[in-house]
Design goal:
The protein has 12 helices and 15 strands. It is of the alpha/beta class. The protein has a 9-stranded mixed beta sheet with strand order 14-13-12-11-7-10-9-8-15. A 6-stranded parallel beta sheet has the order 3-2-1-4-5-6, sandwiched between helices. A hairpin with a 2-residue loop joins β12 and β13.
């Protein structure tokens, strides 16, 4: 591969996630990407990456001329500021989830992307999940017919108190902008809207610090209403173990169940709506076929997004996760939190300025005193998605 077909990548934020990405690139797992620079305020985090240029400031890296592209893996609020700076500097940008903390900042970041030749992507690695990819295909080709209901319980995001102590920014309104909805569940909220579209109304019960000594939400139960009449329930927490990850979809042609990396389709022989209209037996049910649809276990996850990012830059490959779509998962998270703040249902699209003001009030009125942070080694993230 010639030097002209190499993308010189800089990674800003060398915590667990940034280090995981850097290792993949340094090991040569992503054709076309070279780890050219790393940046972190903690210089000790840079020592491992001896072949890359070191920066203690992300802005300095962006302006250095050393990189063609940046991957932003910093605490959430700086995704916006660093992303805008990198886009304005003409760099390709891959931003970790969430792309911003609230909808208004998402829009500011997206508006800074004015050159379509710049690749602007988000790290929504769960879009590579084979079961969810197949479900989306089935929805879009009409195999399921009209969606009636979806219910997703994803409580496999268990986190310990130690986890929340490993950074002074974690689990605070001022540092993270939220809890499970802004840190762990952007993946699931992205998949939810990717599969079913955005709901028109959300009502959520968010419990703040139920399981941990934190000020933000660590347990959520949300009810969703869609324009089509379909309904949904979304449940998540970082306080439950062993937890479940179960997505059930009821539709006119039967029921889909995704659990334990398996996709099962209970397919009605004829549409439910047709059977209801034509059957002359009051307690009859449509006959079904039980179908296990074969899918791979996990897909390429983060590696798949990195490969796609490189191929988009070098070969024009369509993005799996355009950053411009990252606003949707943020808006869903904001809507759930806003519903809890206001103790009422919230209609979408939400008022971005009103939510920003509500979040600002949470920051300014916080009386939470975080326990002393602890030093932690860079974590193994293999079981975290």
């Amino acid at each position: 591969m010639s030097e002209n077909s190499i993308v010189h990548l800089g990674i800003i934020g060398m915590g667990s996630m940034g280090s995981d990405h850097a290792a993949k690139v340094e090991q040569g797992l992503v054709p076309g990407l070279r780890l050219a620079a790393v940046a972190d305020q903690d210089s000790k985090r840079l020592e491992k990456w001896s072949d890359a240029r070191h920066f203690n400031d992300g802005s300095a890296m962006i302006q250095s001329g050393e990189v063609d592209a940046v991957l932003i893996a910093t605490p959430h609020y700086s995704h916006t500021t660093l992303g805008i700076e990198a886009l304005e500097a003409g760099l390709h940008v891959l931003v970790e989830k969430p792309i911003s903390v609230h909808k208004a900042d998402c829009q500011r970041l997206i508006d800074a992307w004015t050159n379509p030749k710049q690749v602007f992507a988000a790290m929504f690695n769960q879009r590579t999940n084979p079961a969810h990819v197949k479900l989306r295909e089935m929805i879009q080709n009409g195999e399921l017919g009209e969606i009636q209901r979806m219910q997703w319980t994803v409580t496999t995001w268990f986190r310990t108190e130690h986890y929340y102590r490993t950074g002074d920014w974690r689990a605070t309104w001022s540092g993270e902008g939220g809890g499970v909805l802004l840190n762990q569940c952007p993946h699931n909220l992205d998949l939810l809207q990717w599969l079913f579209g955005m709901p028109k109304k959300v009502y959520a019960n968010c419990q703040f610090g139920r399981f941990h000594d934190i000020e933000v939400e660590d347990a959520v139960t949300a009810m969703l209403e869609f324009e089509s009449g379909a309904t949904g329930v979304f449940i998540t927490t970082t306080g439950e173990a062993p937890g479940s990850n179960r997505l059930e979809v009821a539709a006119d042609r039967g029921k889909i169940l995704i659990e334990n990396d398996k996709l099962h389709f209970t397919r009605t022989e004829i549409p439910v709506s047709e059977f209801s209209r034509t059957s002359e037996i009051g307690f009859a049910r449509p006959p079904v076929w039980e179908i296990d649809i074969p899918v791979a276990e996990s897909g390429e996850q983060h590696l798949g997004i990195l490969k796609n990012f490189a191929n988009a830059i070098l070969n024009g490959e369509p993005l799996l996760a355009p950053a411009s779509e990252g606003i949707h998962s943020v808006e869903l998270a904001n809507a759930m939190l806003y519903s809890a703040f206001e103790s009422r249902a919230v209609e979408l699209p939400i008022d971005a300025a009103a939510y920003q003001a509500a979040l600002k009030a949470k920051v300014e009125n916080s009386t939470y005193v975080k326990p002393e942070t602890v030093t932690s080694e860079v974590a193994d993230l293999s079981g975290s998605f």
